[in-house]
Amino acid sequence: MPEINLHQYDSSPFSEKIRICLGIKGLAWRAVDQPVIMPKPDLVPLTGGYRRIPVLQIGADIYCDSQLIARELERRFPAKPLYPAGQAGLVNATEQWCDKAVFQAAVVAIFGALGDKVDPAFIKDREALSGQPFNVAAMQALSPFALTQLKAHAELLAEQLADGRAFLAGDQPCLADAAAYYNYWFLRSFAPGLADRFGDLAGFDAWYDRVAGLGHGQRVAMAPAEALNIAAAADPEATETLASDASLVGQSVSLAATDYGRDPIVGTLVGSTQFSLTVAREVPELGRINVHVPRLGYSLTPA
After folding, report:
1. Each residue of 22-47: pLDDT tens digit?
2. Rounded to two decimals, what is the model's pTM?
3. What is the pLDDT of residues 83-98, one digit of tens each?
4. Which of 141, 146, 60, 136 is nearest to 103 (CA)?
5. CB-hemisphere CA count at 13 Å for 156?
6. What is the mean pLDDT of residues 125-151?
7. Whole-angstrom Cα distance, residue 44 to residue 276?
8. Residue 170 DSSP one-character state
9. Which end of the chain is least crowded, N or C, by CB within 10 Å?
10. Rounded-to-integer distance, Cα 55 and Cα 72, Å
11. How many CB atoms sit inside 10 A of residue 181's CB?
């Protein structure tokens, strides 16, 4: 069975999304803790410059972005599915909704509540990540409104749970639950007292507690240097390419997120699926590394 190395840090909301996915599947994995802010000297050699967290490493294959990480976990470990049969539309829509609209509301509510307690080094790092000001004063002004938005999103989730189901797609948890849960975990963990419970939303808090109770699978710690050694000792998996991308195979291309953290990943295109793009990179002391990104939300341009 391939060994799962998750480059993460404990306060990362998108890492919590994947940790819950690992809990749903009951998988054993190794936590490779990375810094919250740059520099990340043991991560960027693997990713080719991509700095966002989490990153999944299996041998010399590197998977960027939580949406692709969830798909790769499902591909390799299909038991206890994250995408239940007949529910893929619900799962995909919930993930996109929560990764964008709900996450943005959570950021404003949390950092607005923290105010001048936010580390200036963190602010500087996030401004470099996003390419725009990380304006805590503006967030403080908007925080009460952001909380109303989070409550409205929670009401939509409660509506899905109104028939008494245990989880969003039915009796068993899936990626929709992990995606819907992590922003409220983020809020309740790092801005306690703002919205610790929604007692007037029937079913929401009980659902939240059920998802929290899924845990994170079997976690052990691993040093970043060991993860680099694993990559150096491995070869990437064989890849296939969609016919529509055949003309790009062997071309030097640049892959980058289109929202924030746009640091380009430059390599030779060696694979694609309906959901992903893959480039090969030759890295000093590590050898060949394949880096995979999602299609959705990422650009491909000639390098």
Report:
1. 999 999 999 999 999 999 999 999 99
2. 0.98
3. 999 999 999 999 999 9
4. 146
5. 13
6. 97
7. 20
8. B
9. N
10. 11
11. 23
